[in-house]
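Ticket #4471: complex job returned nothing on first submit. Input attached below:
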Amino acid sequence: MADSAGLSADLLPPRFADWFAERGWSPRAHQLAMIEKAQTGRDALLIAPTGGGKTLAGFLPSLIALADRPRTNAPNGLHTLYISPLKALAVDVERNLNAPIQQMGLPIVAESRTGDTGVSRRQRQRVKPPDILLTTPEQLALLCAWEGARLYFESLECVILDEIHTLHASKRGDLLALDLARIARFAPNLRRVGLSATVDDPEVIKAWMARHGPAVSLADTSAAAFGESEEQGCAPQSSPNAGVAGGSDRRGRGNASIDLVRGPSGAEPVVEVLLSEGRVPWSGHTAQHAMQEVYDVIKTARTALVFVNTRFQAEFAFQELWRLNEDALPIALHHGSLAAEQRRKVEAAMARGELRAVVCTSTLDLGIDWGDVDLVIQLASPKGASRMVQRIGRANHRLDEPSRALFVPANRFEMLECQAAREAIAENKLDGDPPRVGALDVLAQHVMGCACSEPFDLLALYDEVTSAGPYRALPWEDFEQVVDFVSTGGYALKTYDRFRRIVKGLDGLWRVRNLETAQRHRLNIGAIVSPAMLAVRIATRRGGGGRKVGEIEEGMVEMLEPGETFVFAGQVWRLVAVTNLDVLVQPAPAADPKMPSWGGSKFALSTYLAKRVRQLMYDQAHWQVLPTDVREWLEAQRDRSVIPEENEMLLETFVRGRRHFMVCYPFEGRLAHTTLAMLLTRRLERIGAAPLGFVCNDYALAVWTLNPLEGLDFSELFNEDMLGDDLEAWLAESFMMKRAFKGCAIIAGLIERRFPGQQQKSGRQITFSTDLIYDTLRRHEPEHLLLRCARDDAASGLIDVARLGQMLARIKGRIRHAPLEHLSPFSVPILLEIGKERSPGHTGETMILREAEEDLIAEALQ
Amino acid sequence: MSAPEALPAKAFAYDYSVAECGSLRTSVGPAEVMLRSSGALWMAAERALVVADLHLEKGSSYAARGQMLPPYDTRETLSRLAAEVAALSPTLLVLLGDTFHDRKSEARLAGDDAEGLRELARGRTLVWVIGNHDADGPRALPGEVADEFELCGLTLRHEPRAGAQAGEICGHLHPAARVKGALGSVRRRCFVTDAERAVLPAFGAYAGGLNVRDTAFAGLFLRPPLAGALGRGRVHAVGWRSLVGD
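Support reply: We reran it on our side without changes. The output follows.
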């Protein structure tokens, strides 16, 4: 407690001090610091590892204030609003918060409100708000879009944003930042409190959650920008009533107004990499080779969390572990596709300490506090150091004991990656999300929400929106364009003026056209657009759907034929039929079920980790941390091809079976590689190399052609200018643009979400398809706002253009071309993927593949 | 799944060929027809061009209810139709029903789009077969209005009659074909025919498609029908067994 000496424990009222004492606890320094911040009226960001009493630190000031709130004969109104990224977390925190409230006998009502909360409770919460409301960003957006939102939030003193690091760099984060700016207008005394796990750069989060004043954005954008907006005859930077409406005390201070509080750093985690001496596979993502070792390690632990990167890896690992489970250890499965009740069951069993291991995906990344986990196992590549720190933090919620973690690489490149991640964590070097600029489709949804709640003034709303971190540099023109879009669709062809969704009244204020429009908008709130999910149900005798087993992505079902068996929710099923929104299945004997291979992870390897992998690879003295077989593989690569220097990109060319191969190793993640491969094949086509195909993974990409590649000018081939017209031309036609467009159109309110049950009974597709709208809009108005949004989304999320651009700049003049007689040891893993991408499934093909595998390996080492 | 499979699966050899323009040449009842990659049906003997389900002003119909779909569907649809007319110079142009998306569509038509329609009627016979969306027919625009229309021994109507029908050309159902390959699936608008009747794909820019495996198609055909899926510049003949549901 030495560091809390500066903060006197008498910050804690007697009732609270006693409560701590009764439990044999003493308040931690950061908990006292948070009380002090509240008493001096400061906004604060608390950064602490899991298990540091972070949530309590966030709530203590509110509990203290509410314990003495004078009773009146009118409802007191909302005092504290807590926002969690997960519904389950909000419910969990409600439980944990009510424990001290009851134990101290405090007159405080704390209630959660999520999409799962019953209608009557939600209605009551609107009429008579609790003192503390625990909810999600989507519910907050909904509350803000109700009439009377101003009154509802008027008394709010404090907003607590939990697990902020998972939200800020996403569209959900954009929406939350806008709603934060909104409620800050309603509640002039509102204090902002952020809670975050350890992050690489706290400034990014501070800037996201701070309230930005016009003065700051002017300083940021320099005098030139000021001059520009004046020239356009409009000076929105200071609307006449901004100072009054916003509460002059807090505006204009920018992110300087957030104080940083750091929790204790806790004991260093103990991280090991499973070496699987002599058996690390050349390729693959399942880590099947290591399952026995994983099982043996589970036996030594009290409770282990086994993290995997995809649902399918989860199903696979679960199957494999049960195959080995001679001791019948209670091992469970937890992922986002399982039916909610099944997940709740696993969570409850975990909390009661009945489970020895849970195989799970990112659904358990966040800080739901359950069970006595003492070991975290990461199956297959971690992809990023920060995510791993989060996951490791799930073990041991006591800070004085180190967390134990085991990395299990699924292949040889992953061995390098796991070692790099282990070292990064030991040095406490984390990779972070870059700050993002708020998306305009989200802004469109928010503007509509504002109009649904009360009439707004255009200039005042602009001031409000630009006080939100992600929108602090929003140009006035973009804002106007968004408002025009919300009103009429924002088309150059002005034919919809009479159908305006929001209209400007004689008083100069904008309001929603009618009640029905407002109600429809409220049904469509939220920035999560999930792929179409189908319910997996057990088929009844009459051919209908019975009990629901879980949900499965539409694209997944496409890979299955009726009659085929597959693994889902830890069991083997036979697909009977697919009806409208249901996948009908029957239990099937466990004979060789189809295990759809989901090409690795959806997370890209982080830039930071990729760099460390390249360093490790080049530094031969460092190879000693690797098992013998992986070391020999690197040595063979050194002798037969080249080990590139840290900043070089190795490019190998060789001939195999009348085809000319080009394999290069940028280490930039599958997304960026796929984009690069698409663009390269376009170029190769143009220069007459006749490309036949390509394949990508997280580390490398291979292109094969009919004609020789040796004479090509590779620095020209990899020239950055491919990101210009080539990219545009390819992107416009690609399904990725269409997918991005659909997401933007839903968020922006151009098309409505489809809700289960709302579907036409006959399955008749009388609604329009967004692809048709995309095609038409692109032909007639290529510069439309939504196409701009879609392009930005596709470039960042789906094809990773920024990363590709950085990579092309990095390797300029540093392409190390190795013309080879035959394939290299490095190229084996990527070439092994060629067959796998195409043929999911059949037993015969698997054998053929395995044979091909042996051949390739022998050829590389001969 | 639907009725055609219950029928005797006796192999029927469809008589078709691919023309140089990418169209599928085949026969329906007594008449030879060309199924064009635009989604239009061409009867060269009569110089007749038939298109179904234009759904003009579908965009503004949604906009009136608060969903601001891009207002370019009508001009997109009409410019595609104008291109077909320019390429073929038909003497007879048949709009096979649901030409307008709703009964107020004609009133919402932009001036130059209305002019485009009038231009299409100039120098040829324009027939509006009425559909369920536009049962009143046009008010001010030129052309003849008909419930159904006889041509070359074929009956042209909007909505297919129940049961197998010899010699019928219709629309209404917006057929779409889904074909599954090793690397994924493709879904396209399509013609669907059993050589006795043909259902045309929707021609309108925003008109969605209904999978031909849907029960709405059950019982319409004498034998497992052939789908003519619209591809880029050509129509692909796809057998019933290669088609899958959504």
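Chain A touches chain B at residues 485, 488-491, 493, 495-496, 499, 501, 513, 516-517, 520, 558, 577-578, 750-752, 762-769, 772-773, 775-777, 779-781, 784, 838-839 (CB under 8 Å). Closing as resolved unless it happens again.
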